[in-house]
Structures are given as structure tokens and as C-alpha cells.
Amino acid sequence: MxxxxxxxxxxxxxxxxxxxxxxxxVHREKFKPLGGPDGGNGGPGGSVILRVDPDVTTLLDYxxxxxxxxxxxxxxxxSMRNGAHGSDLxxxxxxxxxxxxxxxxxxxxMVGAGTELVIAQGGRxxxxxxxxxxxxxxxxxxxxxxxxxxxxxxxxxxxxxADIGLVGFPSAGKSSLIAAISRARPKIADYPFTxxxxxxxxxxxxxxxxxxADVPGLIEGASEGRGLGHDxxxxxxxxxxLVHVIDTATIEPGRNPxxxxxxxxxxxxxxxxxxxxxRLVALNKVDVPDGSDIADMVxxxxxxxxxxxFPVSAASGAGTRELIFAxxxxxxxxxxxxxxxxxxxxxxxxxxxxxGDDFTVTRDGEGWRVRGEKPERWIRQTxxxxxxxxxxxxxxxxxxxxxTALVKAGAVEGDPVFIGHPDNSxxxxxxxxxxxxxxxxxxxxxxxxxxxxxxxxxxxxAIEENMDDRAENETRADVARRIDQPDIYGxxxxxxxxxxxxxxxxxxxxxxx
Length: 513
What we know:
The structure is a single chain. The chain is α/β, with parallel strands linked by helices. The chain has helices at 60-64, 129-132, 174-181, 229-232, 257-271, 289-304, 320-337, 373-381, 387-400, 402-409, 455-466, 476-484, 486-489; strands at 9-15, 48-52, 67-69, 89-93, 97-101, 106-110, 116-120, 151-158, 164-167, 199-205, 208-214, 241-247, 279-284, 308-311, 345-347, 360-364, 367-371, 416-419, 426-429. A 6-stranded mixed β-sheet has the order 10-11-9-12-13-14, sandwiched between helices. Strands 3-1-8-5-6 form a 5-stranded mixed β-sheet. Strands 4-2-7-15 form a 4-stranded mixed β-sheet, with no helix packed on it. Helix 11 (455-466) crosses helix 12. Residues 435-439 have low confidence and may be disordered. It is found in: Cytoplasm.
């Protein structure tokens, strides 16, 4: 199997680092067994960054290793020690790399040395219990988990950045012309499709230095996939001008320079986007007698079309100087009209899933679905094995207004509530009116609001059930005392002589006839 040496399109699978988890810890030292929460935060995960490197000219490295991952953040520790930051993963790409999704959406056009694109953001680190402490929750027995880093699949497509593009039929002499006017040494042979990859050459004309690239394998039907031109036509999209290299000494029957020019122009037109580029025509191989005669025959016809035509010989160097300075003239004018490019750093910010509001509530099958950047992030940060952490999540959702929105939408107790994307959501049973924001005394890591059998909950429900039957002057405290000590307080109101009368007895003389 042949090993490629030039790759201009790859699919890359990238993963940013996960944020480290926060830690729940209590400060302890001699004579201070409970010195308060001191758990540190987790460190953020590393991001994946694409950076334009002038020394990189191909995407070959990513062809062999298409999976790249950034470093995870470190976990927090006690004594207020935060976790280490995960190192960013910087991926060098060639100048002119187009970044797009698998669906074809263009994310960025990487042009200019040093240009950076944060393509995948690292996950945030989770907060430790020291950062979660407040006046109402003074000693949290939980910490937040780190968020996962972004994962995505992207396509990198290289479009060579060159000032001049050479186009023409195979064996027209494009590679020979680059070798004659620059220090580039491409492979040259006397058979078609010798050039299998774009060649770049640096040319100097007076005070102007510019680059020249050739597009291999352009033939009739190249825009539809014939030959090699369909794969490499993209490399001339950034060129300031195009030079038609026409073979005037071809031995193939039925070919002539004018027809060759029309065929290539037709393929360029069908590819699209190149109509505004200036054209030059290089009639190559005039060192051959038949080539010189044919060049003289078509010279006037081509100039009548408004084209600048240069008879040249890549073998002898004849006419190349005039062609070089004509190229430099076009390049200089194009650079003067081009705005100054500055090094940029691009950070992709995904659109909010809810359209910009904090959250949305919609009916989803048999339940309700809550979508929003905040609720979904809080879900990812919650340790569901810790009841206190779940209670903290309930507090946050309640303060955000999720419970109120569900009630207004028609949700009733017991309805399933889905939070997050349908492919990876968390399901809750809706339980409205849970007291929130109150410090609950109990064992660390527990939230008594989620214990239906606790005595305080049973007592409160019993009081509520007996409030409707209380006497006119009886207070809530009287009802509570009656429930707690029925033998002492008894009922507040009763009928004299009835079984509820505490002074009544079966042998009472007043009741005996």
C-alpha cells in the first residue's frame, strides 16, 4: 500500500479535557476538630486549539493519527488546594486550512501565520465545598463534579495559499516552468499525470517576492471528477491570478492552443468562483521549431481576446523574465488592495439550546422536558450518589424558576421530568413545594428533605391534618401539644358528661338516676 506524502483533507476526532472534581473536606487540626470546609476546586480541562504554522504544509500527521485529546484537569484536595489546569493541545495546521463540520458548515478559515481557533473548549472544574459554603449552608458535605470537555468531529481541508496559480493540461510544462523560475524541484517526466500533488515555488522579481503553485491533472471533465483536477482545483481559490500554461508542441492529434485554453476555461467556469481572477497565457515550448510556429499563429487571436500572452520556454528560459514581472505586477496590485491581515484568536461559542432564555419547558411524550444551558450544566456537575448534592441541585433549579414553570405548564406531582438532551437526559419525578435554601441538620452527605419517613415530616403532616378540626380559640401550638401529649392535654373542646369529658366517671353520682 502506497504511503501518501501529501494530504489536503482529513477527518479529525478531537476531545477537550474534562474538568477535575471538587472535593468535600473539613479542616482539622489539634483542638480544632471541625475547622470548617476547606475542599479545593477542580482544575479546568485543557482545550484543543488549531494554530496556523508556516512550517507545516500538509495534513499528513492527522491522516495517520486522526484522534486527538487534550489533558484532563486535576481534582481538588483538602486545605484549599485546587486541582491543576489541564494543558491545552495545540495542533499546527498549514496556512489556508478550512475548518468545517461533517455536515459542511464552515467554522473558520485559517489564514495568516499565528491565527488560532479554539475548536473544543475544556470542561470547567467542579467547585469544592469551601466555595459552596454560605450563610445558610455553612458546612456542605458535597462538592461539584467537573464538566466533560467538548467532543466533536471536524473536517480539515487545505487550500494552498499561493499568489499565482498555474493551470493547464497534463505535460503542458507547469512543473518545468516552476523549476525554471524558482528553486522548486518538482518531479518532471515525459508522461501525463507526472505531478500528483500541488507544487509550490517562491519567485523573486525585483523587490517583489511571491509564490506560484500548479494544479495537477486538469483535463476535460475535471470539475466532474475526471483526472486529478477535481481534488486539487480548490488550491487555486486563493490565487490572485491564473496563468494558462499551453503546450504548443504537443504530439496529440486534434489539439491546438486555442481549444486547450477554451477547455480549461470551461472547467474553471464550471467549478465556479474564479471569474474575477486576472489571466495570463504562457505559450510554452517555443524552443521546439513546431512550437514556435504554432505560437506565432495563435498569438494575435489570443491577444484579441484581451489576454496578455507570453511565448516562453521552460527548457531554455526564453521569455520567462517577462512572464515573471507580469506576475509580480498583478501580485503587487492585489496586495495593495488587500486589507492588512492581523493574527486572530477565534473561540467557538455554541448557540444556546434554548434560544437564549435561561430554560424552556415543553411537553415530551408522557413527561416534561427542561432544556437550557444552566440546568444542563448543573446536571453534569451533580453527584447523584450524594443526597445533599441532589438537594443543592433542587435548590438551584427552584431559584431559577423551573418548578414554577412546570406548575404553570400543567405538571402535577409524580410526572416524569427530563432535563437535558433526549440522547442523554436525567429523569426526575416531579415533587413541587420542596423547601429550598434552608440549612438541614443531619449527617454529612444527606438532605433530610428527601427522607419521607423522618419524624419531623410526619409530625408536620399530622398537624396540618388536624388544623381543620381545631376549636375556635385553639392555636397551631395547641394542636401540636395535643398531638404530642394526648394523655395530658386531651381534646380542647368536649361535651360535658360525654366520654371525652376528663371529669366524667361511670360511678359519678350525678349521672345515676
